[in-house]
Amino acid sequence: MNHTGAGVQKTEVSGTHQLIENKWCSLRQMEIATEPSNEKETNGEKKEIKVLLVDDEPFICDLLSRWLTSEGYLCTTSLSGESALELLAKETYHLVLSDIRMPGMSGLDLLKIVTKSFPDAAVIVVTAVDEQKTAIKTLKSGAYGYIVKPFDKSEILVNIANALERRRVTLLMREYECNLEWSVQERTAQVRAREEQIILRLLSASEYRDDETGAHIRRIGMYSSVIAQALGWDSQTVDDIRLAAPMHDVGKIGIPDRILQKPGQLTPEEFEIMKKHTEIGGCILDNSDIPVLRMAQEIALSHHEKWDGTGYPRGLAGEAIPQSGRIVAVVDVYDALIHKRVYKPALPEEEVLSILSDGRGKHFDPIILDHFMNLLPEMRRIRTQIREE
Ligand SMILES: [Fe+2]
Ligand SMILES: [Fe+2]
């Protein structure tokens, strides 16, 4: 350790000792003057404050320990950075007062480790006059203060009080931010759960009349979210399509039973009426400022559009069809063909995949179909997970 203050040599430990003691004594009156304001703290919280004093010079450790203990702090001393870390690992300290220049681990190294691994501890560094540049560097590295040798008791106490106050405010802010983040997350999750519940209620109303099962609409949501993820959508939008895609046929609520529940093929006139479910769904979900409902509206309107422009209701082609609608187009056909319906048996997967491949670049967006094919194992897993009731 370098105790060199103005004109004091490193080897003159006893001289330094005297210098510190003298300065301390000459300031006793000042300390006494400050005592009334400290008294309350001494009888209160301060007694609980644990300070770790790190200096390779036992005398400095003893001196600081005596000063601080008399002020009500609980002091532990350590003669090296290494042993200070061992103590910090075992116990929580509010404050670390560390010398910079020590054999082995320097105070700067100790500061860096404490700031990273024990962020609740405030660190004050103690430095010789000729190390002021280092001192400034330590402030940038997270020190709460620095004290220049030779120091006196009042400097130490003022620095400690400032550091502890800053630490208190920092911890409060950290806790506040953490609580705020937690409550925002909790609130978002609550809102999401409500949205999900409302959507499921709306869907269960339409399920009463439709041949399509609850399992089908849940699978459509899951398949769609898997493809959206593969397309690089952000996690929120991926979750939106999981909830929005099941609403693709919500407009069927406006289609008469004689058409909706007809067991055989529809006549051309009946099919024209059936096609209206896209626009009815679009109207039901129109003008919402909730993102998931806006996406659901887009899907309801566009899931029967075809890549080559021969779909309905608007005959959109290529990328003019919203991507969400292009995703649902693929997974809706896949799921409808592979499962049994009142008007048709279930088809073997091989046949379903061949129908889908025939529609590549005609009915289906080729890129989305390729993603779907690559993700087939995942699609099969969803089918096993969500079976027909
Ligand atoms: Fe549909
Ligand atoms: Fe469907």
Automatic annotation (TrEMBL):
Keyword line: Phosphoprotein
Matches recorded under SMART domains: HDc, REC
Pfam families linked: HD_5, Response_reg
Annotated source species: Desulfomonile tiedjei (strain ATCC 49306 / DSM 6799 / DCB-1)
Family matches, as InterPro entries: CheY-like_superfamily (IPR011006), Cyclic_di-GMP/3'3'-cGAMP_PDE (IPR052020), HD/PDEase_dom (IPR003607), HD_GYP_dom (IPR037522), Sig_transdc_resp-reg_receiver (IPR001789)
4-aspartylphosphate PTM sites in chain numbering: 99
Protein name as catalogued: Response regulator containing a CheY-like receiver domain and an HD-GYP domain
Every Response regulatory domain range: 50-164
Domain HD-GYP: 191-388
Lineage top rank: taxon: Bacteria
Biological process according to GO: phosphorelay signal transduction system
